[in-house]
Amino acid sequence: MSARLIDLLLRLSPRERGLLAIAVFVVGPLVVVFGLLLPLTERREAALQTEAEAVALHNWVQDRAAEQVQYGAAPQQVPQPAIGSSGIEQQLIDAQLRPSVSELATQAGGVVELRFDEVDFIRLANWMTSAHPDWGYAIASFRFEASDSPGKIAAWLVLRPQQG
User: Fold this and answer.
1) 74 or 102, which is more confident?
2) In the chain, where the domains are located
3) Which pLDDT belongs to residue 11?
4) Which end of the chain is more exposed for a tag (fewer CB within 10 A), N or C?
5) Where are the alpha helices (DSSP H) in the chain?
6) pLDDT in tens, 104-137
7) Residue closest to 102 by CA, chosen among 117, 86, 92
8) Is 18 helix (H, G, I), strand (E, B) or coil?
9) Where are the transmembrane segments (predicted)?
């Protein structure tokens, strides 16, 4: 086998032997690097990123579970009577959110629906945090969607009167 290889190389001109040497010693390692090692490195980086995201999610879930334990130990609040859509509207005016309200509707059973097509997220979150304990409603459902404007969202809230 080696005799055939030597015989083949001796038949080639010096220029052909030089090109063959370049192909073997330069192109060959480049093929190995770009064909095998780089894809493995990219997959490793993707796996490390996925692992970091999973660890962050795990930590977040543990933090929420710890919060739930705290809330479970807190004394239960006595449900307040529902303030009605006019009371909610007054709170929205006080929080300077009324111009952002696209829909404020009352359904049967005192259920209130709120829709904001574009509202400042921080202002809405602060209003919900401060108003929620006293307004006599439980949040039955909500949906927030990011908008193109920074810090702005579209929001839908359905509020049900708290059960006493």
Assistant:
1) 102
2) 2-73, 84-161
3) 83
4) N
5) 2-11, 14-22, 28-32, 38-73, 84-94, 121-131
6) 998 888 899 999 999 999 999 888 888 766 678 8
7) 117
8) helix
9) 20-40
